[in-house]
Amino acid sequence: MDRLPETTISVQNLHKSFGDLHVLKSIDLDVHRGEVVVLIGSSGSGKTTLLRCLNFLAEYEQGQIHIDEKLMWYCDADCRQKRPTKEIAHDRAAIGMVFQSFNLFPHRTVLENIILGPTKVKPVRVPKPEATEQAMALLDRVGLLEKADAYPNTLSGGQQQRVAIARALAMEPKVMLFDEVTSALDPELVGEVLNVMRQLARDGMTMVVVTHEIHFALDAADKVIFLDQGKIAEQGPPEQVLFHPQSSRLKDFLRRFEEMTLLSWRRAPPGEKARS
Amino acid sequence: MNAHLRFDLDYILRHLPDFGPAIWMAVQILVLASAIALIWGIFLALARLGRGPVYWAATGYIELFRNTPLLVQIYFAFFGLPVFGIFLSPFATGVLALAAQHGAFFAEILRGTIQSVQAQQREAGLALGMMPNQAMRYVILPQAFRDAIPASGNQVVLLLQDTALVSTIGVYEITKTAYTLAERSAASFEMFVAIGVIYLVISGLMSITLRGIESAYRIVR
């Protein structure tokens, strides 16, 4: 068997601008196999942009991102020679992404949403019967087996987001990226999505999660990164970053969650921790 | 009693069978021209979303054909094409002229619906590992086609009305037949009432069919 690299994602000196706006400033980041990294920060801190750079949905001008020791994107000095779109697409197929706004395909049933990738996109195409079987297993895993033939618009937000997770998992990704996946949900639907993500973390999936759910960071993350004004301001194990913030920016940021999240968590810690 | 005020229903009924072949002719023009226009429209719409010469060629074509009267285009095709050594039957000339203009209209309908599919849909496809052309094929176009059905249905109904113009180059469709029968009698008014009703019935049947297609393929977002 091939040796699997320890570091799944490696970001070096990443810079990204939107016009004059310098959104990411020299980001360095390593994500190891099986690790769950949670990115927090106020809006505009660059966390979503960083996530989108990881699968090159957002283009960047400077820096290097390696996924499994393979350079995600490059161009020569004057950028005439770029990495071919086909190669980027090929690599993206192994990186699952879940969006804030679900983005299920509304003209396809839940099952059709899930098997589209394996049957039509995956570098090694999966035959339809096999893809269907795998899709049903995934739907079972996210608790939506009975919704296979439903159209996305008939589902609740939480159900749609769980289908979106199943759709991404159907590609058998090495890494899963989550972009504020619970931000568009009614509060009572957040839990069902986070539970699926917790289970995924327990199963050993490598995950990078942008979220405002401090709760989730505490019980599922291996590492929490606080982004501030396009830079990594603080990082470390969740307890260290969330309970012992060093900078005043992070203290201010966390104060907003204190009453509603941290205190309630201390009062009634949710079950066992995802990992030790 | 003044003969001009008499409405000769009997004359219409007597000549109704003459309209059988005329309606069949109009339906053939309608179906062929619509099919060609739709396919041509898809090409034009995709070209118009491209860049460089492809974009300019499609844009030039669409503007030219949208902004000149169909009758002028039909005459141009009928009298102009032979000048270039292209000899087509009046029927084929009519079908192509209709398809040429309606293709431009279809292209604009489709361009609109393609552009109105949310950008996040394309992104979701790309994030799954699709190439841009796969995202177009599996994600954007299927939605754009469905969204285009109501406006396209309207366009096909307009195309039916436009088949009347093909009468000017001697194709015996509904209007030409009515002209001929009217010339043979004093019953012009009756004839044009009759074909008005015929067009209305065909359009009505089409509208009902289209509404069925529309609701069967509607996307609820």
- CATH homologous superfamily name of chain B? MetI-like
CATH architecture label name of chain B: Orthogonal Bundle
Q: Mean pLDDT of chain A, rounded to whole units?
A: 89
Helicity range of the residues of chain B?
over 70%
Q: Specify the overall morphology of chain B.
A: flat
CA distance, first residue to last residue of chain A: 28 Å
Task: Report how far apart the termini of chain B are.
Answer: 64 Å
Give unreliable regions of chain A as ranges: 272-276
- Total strands of chain A: the figure is 10
For the largest beta sheet of chain A, what order do the strands appear in spatially?
Answer: 6-7-8-3-9-10
Biggest sheet overview of chain B: none
Write down the secondary-structure element order of chain A: EEEHEEHEHHHEHEHEEHH
Taking Cα atoms only, what radius of gyration of chain B do you get, to the nearest Å? 21 Å
Order of helices and strands of chain B: HHHHHHHHH
Give the largest interface pair and sizes: A-B, 32 and 21 residues
- If you average the pLDDT of chain B, what whole number results? 92
Strand percentage of chain A, roughly?
Answer: 15-25%
Q: Give the % helix of chain A.
A: 25-40%
Describe this entry's structure for a reader.
The complex is a heterodimer of chains A (276) and B (221). By secondary structure, chain A is of the alpha/beta class. Chain A is built from nine helices and ten strands. The radius of gyration of chain A is 19 Å and the shape is globular. Residues 272-276 of chain A have low confidence and may be disordered. By secondary structure, chain B is an all-alpha fold. Chain B has one domain (2-220): MetI-like (MetI-like fold), CATH 1.10.3720.10. Chain B has nine helices and no strands. In chain B, helix 5 crosses helix 7. The radius of gyration of chain B is 21 Å and the shape is flat. Chain A binds chain B through residues 55, 57, 85-86, 89-97, 99, 101, 103-107, 116-117, 120-123, 151, 153-154, 167-168, 171, and chain B through 118, 120-121, 123-124, 126-132, 134, 138-139, 142-143, 146, 219-221.
